[in-house]
Design goal:
With about 575 residues, the chain is mainly α. About 65% of the residues lie in helices and about 0% in strands.
């Protein structure tokens, strides 16, 4: 806890604990109401008949992590408003997903996104993609639980262990007992908490600045933080209009087009049209939430424009910026700091519950059921499969808590690498899925080659980027107004950020991180097409003709319906018998 900062009041604890209890109660209620429905479809897809609005909000909640809320505000504080321009890519990303990806996945009626890769290519491609996703999501869940716990601990008196174990346990409880239906409605409740907390910070922070909103904008503008239209085409500049638009389009498409957690939510509604509507609700909420979070970052700069709390050493990490601001401006308004902490943990809980559900879906569908079918010669019955799925969700939740606790013993570089993995591995998965959708001549050998090589290349690029690159584009700050007798100072007063940007490593490693997905997709497409051509030309392996149902249908939104191809365990059992014969 930082000396001199307002402390948590008992009213704050009441608000925070009430959020956790209410979330758990929703999970228990749905678990009781659906106690007679024992199937993987009910647990993983909510029965496939959920309402559009809560599903749209749940998509928003699942990928609005606490890391994002804390990180976006720090981004505005340190680099300015340029990042907000990524919202211009949102309608294109989600419109493309709604009209291209959703009809295809809904038409196949699959539970795991990577079942598509077996249908289109081969089980080897499916298994490889499932392993990559599982590693990606499990690592991200753990860091997403640890990072906010650390930030909250250092500006309040809530211990790291209590935060991780307590919130993780609540999340496991409602996810395992209530399943997807409970998760979707709890996400809806938690998003309301997120908006309430951020709106409270934005309003109170603005009112606390002499001159209000006008002075806030003036201070941000004078420091160069109000910046929207940098049209520099250089791909090695961190954020420009082009990197945010084109790079943001593909980066976000890894979430809305190839991520199991999102695709799973598409399938919780009755048809692809409703899933597309849910995605549009997510679009509106996402723009609003990002705008609100970014504005809170500008509030923090305007509040501390004469005393940079990062440069002066008052706080150590950018993630602590928003919690510090909250305790500073809301600390005496008992209950509101508790609301903000509930906001941060609502974001964390939504990410963890979505991760548990998607990991359980991938594991039961892509590993347990196929292995059981091969070893036993018949499909796993639904009741037993439902219990195994709940056990898997429990196991992944406990594992995430354990790894989140161990994160405190890792260095910052390791944590940054772990967090980067989520974005780095999304590109290859998007690449191989779109290869199957758009390239009719691509076969499984080319797809598998492209997937493996692009994954290795992206991880290599990400590691080198983290190790050798340094922050560029930092905006000026000042510590001239700091009271250095009240806080420990780690560096002398400064008025600007040093402009020197040498020793940034090889130029290729400075590629904007928003182009990592494009880099992976290009590798996948190139190798996928070239290797497929060679394999077909040389007749190295037997390649089955491509089923048109597994290719994108550009006319789908002009039709009133889509042919549904049900993929179930009986189909898989028949396929295994054919193989054995």
């Amino acid at each position: 806890m930082i000396p001199g900062l307002n402390k948590f009041h008992y009213a704050d604890y009441i608000v925070f604990v009430a959020m956790l209890i209410f979330s758990a109660a929703i999970g228990l209620a749905f678990g009781w109401l659906n106690r007679k429905k024992q199937s993987t479809k009910d647990f993983l897809l909510g029965g496939g008949d959920l309402k559009v609005f809560p599903v749209g909000i749940s998509i928003l909640a699942s990928f609005t992590s606490a890391i994002a809320i804390l990180g976006f505000s720090a981004e505005m504080y340190r680099y300015g408003t340029m990042y907000w321009m990524i919202t211009l890519s949102y309608p294109f990303t989600q419109g493309f997903a709604a009209l291209v990806f959703i009809p295809l996945f809904h038409g196949l009626k699959i539970t795991s996104a990577y079942q598509y890769l077996e249908l289109r290519f081969h089980k080897y491609v499916r298994t490889t993609a499932s392993i990559i996703f599982s590693f990606q999501m499990f690592l991200y869940m753990s860091v997403a639980l640890y990072t906010p716990a650390l930030a909250i601990e250092q500006v309040t008196d809530i211990s790291l262990v209590i935060s991780i174990v307590g919130t993780g346990a609540i999340c496991i409880l409602y996810t395992v007992i209530g399943g997807m239906k409970a998760t979707v409605w709890i996400d809806t409740f938690q998003v309301l908490i997120m908006f309430a907390g951020l709106i409270a910070v934005a309003i109170k922070g603005t009112l606390d600045i002499p001159g209000g909103f006008t002075e806030l904008i003036r201070r941000a503008d004078r420091s160069g933080r109000i910046e929207f239209f940098d049209f520099n085409p250089n791909p090695f500049v961190r954020h420009t209009f082009w990197t945010l638009f084109f790079g943001g389009f593909l980066t976000n498409l890894t979430v809305y087009g190839s991520n199991q957690g999102t695709i799973q939510r598409y399938l919780t509604v009755k048809n692809w049209q409703n899933a597309s509507k849910a995605l549009m609700i997510n679009l509106i909420g996402g723009v609003f939430l990002l705008t609100l979070t970014c504005f809170c970052g500008l509030v923090a700069y305007a509040k501390y424009y004469e005393c940079d709390i990062l440069g002066s050493g008052i706080i150590k990490r950018g993630e602590q910026l928003l919690p510090y601001l909250v305790m500073d401006i809301l600390g005496k308004l008992h209950g509101l700091p508790g609301l903000f902490v509930a906001t941060i943990y609502s974001a964390a809980l939504s990410t963890i519950s979505g991760g548990m559900n998607s990991l359980a879906a991938v594991c039961i569908t892509d590993f347990v059921k196929p292995i059981y079918l091969i070893t036993k010669g018949h499909a796993l019955n639904e009741k037993k499969a439902a219990y195994i799925t709940k056990g898997l969700a429990l196991l992944f939740g406990l594992g995430a808590i354990g790894l989140a606790y161990l994160c405190q013993f890792f260095g910052n570089t390791v944590l940054q690498l772990a967090l980067s993995i989520f974005g780095l591995l999304g590109g290859p998965l998007l690449g191989v899925i779109t290869l199957g959708m758009f390239f009719k001549k691509a076969n499984w050998v080319g797809a598998l080659t492209g997937l493996i090589v692009s994954t290795i290349a992206n991880i290599w690029l990400g590691i080198e980027g983290v190790l050798y690159s340094k922050p560029t584009g930092l905006k000026p700050v000042s510590t001239a107004g700091c009271n250095f007798t009240a806080f420990p100072v780690t560096q002398p007063p400064l008025t600007t950020v040093p402009a020197m940007e040498e020793d940034l490593g090889p130029v290729f490693y400075r590629m904007s991180y928003l182009y990592y997905s494009l880099f992976a997709c290009l590798i996948t497409y190139f190798l996928g097409v070239v290797v497929s051509f060679i394999v077909e030309k040389k007749k190295l392996v037997e390649i089955k003709p491509t089923n048109p149902e597994y290719l994108v249908n550009w006319k789908i939104w002009t039709n009133n319906r889509i042919v549904q191809t049900q993929i179930n365990d009986e189909d898989l059992e028949l396929e295994v018998k054919k193989i054995n014969l």
